[in-house]
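Usage

Read records sequentially. Each one opens with the input sequence:
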Amino acid sequence: IHPRVYALDRSNQWVPASDPIHFDKPIAAVGPGLSFGKVLADLDPTIRVGLIPCAVGGSPISTWEPGGYWEQTDSKPYDDALERTHIAQQSGVLKGMLWHQGESDSNENDAALYLDRLEALIARLRTELDTPDGPFVAATLGDFVVSRNGWAQVVNDALLKLPQRVNRTACVEAAGLEHNGDNLHFDSASAHELGRRYAKALIQIQGVGGST
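and closes with the structure output:
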């Protein structure tokens, strides 16, 4: 726990951030959010960092559009994320968005469409959230995902091309990070390292703190 890092909980209340921050699927106990928030809070002692967990485990990017539905979590990923972010914006300023998704799109039909769909999603989010230049940082899928599904490399290649296609975006690589034994979710150390990589990329987009 960090004294200046908060998270919006399931009931849309600000609480001190602690793992797990997300609540879509309890099986993934630790995510990158807390370590990400700590880096930013430590960079500037005058700010408070508010994290808005909107993860929907297993959801394909096609469900991240208005009205999209994901049966595994009985939720509407895009609509729910918008609602929660609008609530958060009542008490703070949206400084960036983090994205880590793509395994469900790692197949013959969807992998080649991934970059176009992601670009459209970013444009919708920026418009709906009134942040036309809002920083957006994506991350590649882990090596352990690519090793068992070749289509995941196609998705990763698309993610790595994102900064060339969309302004004020970045893609951090999950290379070298380890799973927790299920070949699907990062272990705690890797999740925290990914959070630090996210923070470094966001700082670079914002042009604050150089390569810190």
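Summary fields computed downstream for this record:
- The longest helix spans residues 188-206.
- The two ends are 21 Å apart (CA to CA).
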